[in-house]
Amino acid sequence: MTRRLRVAAAVAALALAASACESGRAADGTVDLPDPVVATGATSSVDYVALGDSFSAGPFIGTMRADPQGCARSKDNYPAFVADWLDVATYTDVTCSAATTTDLYEPMVMFDGNTTRPQLDAVTAETDLVTLGMGGNDFGIYDSLIQCQRGPAAACPVAQLRADAGQVAGRIRQAVRRILAVAPDAEVLVVGYPDILPTDGTCGAVGVPADVLGPVTEVAGLLNASLRRGARAAGGAYVDMAAVSEGHDVCAKGRAWVNGPRLRVGVAAPFHPKINGMRAVAVEVFREVTGEEPAEVTEYAEPDPDAVVLNAS
Prior knowledge:
By secondary structure, the protein is α/β, with parallel strands linked by helices. It has a single domain, classed as 3-Layer(aba) Sandwich (Rossmann fold), CATH 3.40.50.1110. 35% of the residues lie in helices and 9% in strands. Helix 3 (78-86) crosses helix 8, helix 4 packs antiparallel against helix 6 (210-233) and helix 5 runs parallel beside helix 6. The longest helix has 25 residues, at 158-182. It is globular, with a radius of gyration of 18 Å.
């Protein structure tokens, strides 16, 4: 039995134990998560490693992990939900806010001035599953998009941003290949970014006219397309969050998966996923890995403490 099939077998046991759980996908294709249920089942043998930037780390969502503190990594980010729902044997989360693909291979200076090891060091020959969620910080793309959002449309360097977004494909291709060189039997999932801003119109939470948002949403789409190309070219899979997050941007009010422009400690960093957004990503990752709906969608992430590998050195 392959490692992928072992995951599916474990999840099938969970599904049988919670057969009353309804599907999380609505008729219009959006993901409206089911109410939390309690399920029990066999623990899988999966060794899971999560790599990524702040959209994976989850800064300011609930309680931050302190291993290391400078990464602003939440205990309720999507890797934690995935580890919980898959009942993994080992769970190592080295996602770090502000990370770029360079930080996969080199030490990273964190927000607090301390240094963390290269993220790829967490991957070993025994690793079965890797999620990789990064690329938006490469070439300063997201920083530039924030500046575009604050200024007139004419001041946004769209041509340069288009070119930069296109170059991310090569970096993701290299990253996936490097991961598979270390863990040749692993399943590698590149996780795309959700819709942050509306693709049509605007709202008070954004604070700028729709014509200013046009270049921003265009480049965001190009970035996700680049992630998809890089993943598939290297033998990885792509988790398309833009497809399922439509209608859950900052203008969606109670249905929003992302926070607005204000820092809300305990909720999320500005224009970053909230806990419901993290659960939504975990649903898609779970579905990609197993081909099944999660049998257990919990309000908070509770991976087995014995499976959590602490990263502080």
